[in-house]
Amino acid sequence: xxxxxxxxxxxxxxxxxxxxxxxxxxxxxxxxxxxxxxxxxxxxxxxxxxxxxxxxxxxxxxxxxxxxxxxxxxxxxxxxxxxxxxxxxxxxxxxxxxxxxxxxxxxxxxxxxxxxxxxxxxxxxxxxxxxxxxxxxxxxxxxxxxxxxxxxxxxxxxxxxxxxxxxxxxxxxxxxxxxxxxxxxxxxxxxxxxxxxxxxxxxxxxxxxxxxxxxxxxxxxxxxxxxxxxxxxxxxxxxxxxxxxxxxxxxxxxxxxxxxxxxxxxx
Length: 267
Hints:
267 residues, Rossmann fold, 8-stranded mixed β-sheet, 3-stranded mixed β-sheet
């Protein structure tokens, strides 16, 4: 029995030793990992190595040769160069394309930007899609361009052509709903000069002339139905060509018109 126990011990001790060594190695690895994470030793070494690689490769053919811009009109070249903050000789491999794209898209006139690398020569190419102005919003004696999504373009702007003027609190936020309906009839839409958002709930539409044109009072609900009625009345009876001050479509079963100019409740 004693002999058998000694034989068993002689067989098992190498495995016990291996197990202890593995356990000890695991403890050391865990300890080293905690120290490394705490002091970010690996991260610092990797960052240092990457910086060294970028520095060396920039001098052996990977330096930035040029920057090209495509699609800009109202966006100035100076504004683009300012936000991308690049210069000739920068390592083209080190340039963060996503950051550049985000910075360019933050410019007031830019709707979308695509940034790419091109090699030999080493070029950063920036393609821009600019916002389209659909109207001008008048608010507190100031005028703001409104894009196709109904958003204010936060920049100074001098209108280059006749644009639809929208007026009133909340007008930009509800502009797309208006546009989706009135653009369906291009002939009548071309005569629409101004749209006044009344009491933050409905529209007054002014046709042909902002000061002396016909004002059409639209209902708070079923705007599209009232618009179709207006289109039909103008095509069949030429109602907008008559000498009227306003046309009231707020009542479903009635059309009220006024021939002479006078004050009227706009609510």
